[in-house]
Task: inverse folding
């Protein structure tokens, strides 16, 4: 799986549900969805790329740069990648049923949140972003094991309400 497939899951959901998604909202939804999948399955779904702790929260840099031309406007096109073997550009999709099920649940919970509200969630004390972010630094990786621990505890709290 790759970062573009994760991004495309949420871009497709936004189109289907007619809920506009900006780059900031996409980044936060990807991080939360990633956290849920890692916590519930132990599977790594962002490919060879790690989330980084940027000023406004967790970011997958490749997706940020691909979508930054939208600014604060809704994203209209899917993320793409290049297949060197077949010499084609394509839009990757998530194919694992279990991952789709978990990401659908994360979407259902968070789709109504604004980009800024999602940003605030990722900035709370004890979050993996908060533990990784250093003022003025860009590129600090957010450790996957911290994401796993945080979202395992977070989901347990949700289930026990």
Result:
């Amino acid at each position: 799986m790759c970062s573009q497939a994760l991004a495309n899951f949420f871009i497709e959901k936004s189109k289907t549900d007619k809920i506009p998604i900006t780059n900031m909202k996409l980044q936060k939804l990807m991080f939360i969805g990633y956290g849920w999948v890692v916590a519930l399955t132990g599977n790594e779904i962002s490919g060879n790329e790690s989330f980084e702790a940027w000023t406004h929260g967790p970011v997958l840099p490749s997706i940020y740069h691909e979508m930054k031309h939208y600014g604060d406007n809704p994203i209209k096109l899917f993320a793409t990648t290049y297949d060197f073997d077949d010499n084609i550009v394509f839009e990757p999709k998530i194919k694992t049923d279990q991952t789709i099920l978990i990401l659908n649940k994360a979407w259902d919970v968070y789709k109504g949140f604004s980009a800024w509200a999602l940003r605030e969630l990722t900035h709370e004390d004890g979050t993996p972003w908060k533990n990784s972010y250093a003022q003025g630094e860009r590129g600090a990786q957010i450790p996957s094991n911290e994401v796993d621990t945080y979202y395992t505890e977070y989901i347990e709290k949700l289930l026990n309400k």
